[in-house]
Specification:
heterodimer, A: mainly alpha, 10 helices, 0% strand, B: 75% helix
Chain lengths: 246, 77
């Protein structure tokens, strides 16, 4: 996979994933997995494994920035991370036993959830009372989503930090980002072991993602975040339909 | 101080990983070695945030031990 057009396509996919991730605060996995699976025809497991390796890098790069500005609550990141890791390890190992069609359907369901959340106006409310036990109990689910579907798990972690632990949006995203780096790293070990990572695609995706995330904030200001969210929600719904064979 | 050093180390590892993985398809003789180095750098980089937490005294050791224990388990199973 060293053809110039293919490389440009992968860089463009990475750019889109990084740009959308940076502009809308979602992980690049919702872009990378469908493109690798639907457009390049890679098996869903290889798309998931490759996505996890790319997400490891992007979450680490973003996490470094959040650490420098002291936005990460490491106490909670480690406590929640232990349980998320357990879920990610279990799901990434069990993924080999799951029918690829089931993974496609689950991924489509995840896309619908993300699209609906994006289309609805963001509630600014935070939890008045912390529920740490419930927050900890949800973490294996977040880890499993990452390990099975190749996305970061922030789609579960950020709402948990906000709504069950009462953290601000900024602290929730920062803490979740560091955890996503950890869960994606341990989940990708299983896919690496099974040879389900496409090393011809990963570097170009990485390159695109890192550049895309950098240019995202300026372009968001120009276009308008709400227009982007609604437009991307429609794209996600269409992708979900394609993932289930539409 | 630690956060600054570890964040620079993490960024350096990410650049190393990117360089190795981009170069691997073209340097046929060293291709496998470059992939191994690149992937290792990628998998190590996220954990460099932990020393920052330890230095700040924010995290209790049993939780760190549990986290690192799970990482070890993920390599073993």
């Amino acid at each position: 996979m060293t053809e110039p057009l293919l490389i440009l396509g992968l860089i463009a996919t990475g750019l889109a994933a990084g740009w959308i991730g940076g502009a809308l605060g979602i992980g690049g996995g919702v872009v990378i997995v469908p493109v690798l699976h639907l457009a390049l025809g890679l098996p869903i497991a290889t798309a998931v494994g490759s996505s996890l390796l790319v997400i490891t890098a992007t979450a680490t790069a973003a996490g470094v920035g959040y650490l420098r500005e002291n936005s990460v609550e490491m106490d909670w990141a480690v406590r929640l991370g232990v349980l998320a890791l357990a879920g990610a390890i279990a799901a990434s190992r069990l993924a080999a036993l799951v029918n690829p069609r089931v993974v496609s359907w689950l991924f489509a369901a995840l896309l619908v959830v993300v699209a609906v959340r994006m289309a609805l106006p963001e509630a600014e409310s935070r939890a008045a009372v912390e529920r740490p036990a419930l927050a900890l109990a949800t973490m294996p689910v977040a880890g499993s989503v990452a390990g099975l579907l190749g996305v970061g798990g922030g789609v579960v972690q950020v709402p948990v930090l906000r709504l069950l632990l009462g953290r601000s949006m900024r602290h929730s995203v920062a803490t979740s980002t560091v955890m996503v780096g950890w869960t994606a790293a341990v989940a990708s070990i299983a896919y690496l072991g099974r040879g389900e990572v496409n090393f011809a695609a990963v570097p170009w995706l990485l390159l695109g993602v890192l550049v895309g995330a950098r240019v995202a904030p300026a372009s968001t200001r120009r276009i308008g975040g709400r227009v982007l969210e609604l437009g991307f929600a429609l794209v996600l719904l269409w992708t979900a339909w394609r993932m289930v064979g539409g | 101080m630690v956060s600054s050093i570890t964040s620079r180390a993490a960024q350096a590892l990410l650049l190393l990983a990117l360089g190795c993985l981009v170069a691997a398809p073209w340097l046929t003789l060293a291709s496998d070695a470059l992939v191994v180095i690149g992937v290792t750098a990628l998998l190590v980089a996220p954990w460099l945030s932990l020393p920052t937490a330890v230095e700040a005294g924010e995290v209790r050791w049993p939780w760190i031990a549990a986290l690192l224990g799970l990482v070890a388990v993920s390599f073993l199973i």
